[in-house]
Amino acid sequence: MCVVNPDLVDEIGHLVGGQCEIMTRIGISWNSWIKIASGLPVRLSLAHRFKARVLASAGSIEGFHQKFPLPGGGLDYVALDDAFLLPGTPAHSEPNALRSGMK
Q1: pLDDT tens digits, one per residue of 69-101
Q2: Which phi and psi angles does 90 have, rounded to 5°?
Q3: What residues make up the domain containing 17?
Q4: CA triplet 34, 37, 38: central angle to 5 degrees?
């Protein structure tokens, strides 16, 4: 599980479009987008697919150019790629002792 960097989500929002367009535009479901936009962990396979689609359009996202500039101009794709995903924890991360007490 991982989390899409919350500092990048606002910049990505315009790529999403509406609920009907999201699958064709960036290859994820509306429910997955809601998780990403809320900062919730998602599966690595989904996150990598999402990242690949976003990076393919990253050159057109002005906010990325501001956050990840190259010294000579342009977008630093390596820095963007490195910053895109953060480690995440499963939603049910309470200690085993708490779960076993609920039985």
Answers
A1: 999 999 999 999 999 999 986 554 444 444 444
A2: -60, 150
A3: 2-101
A4: 85
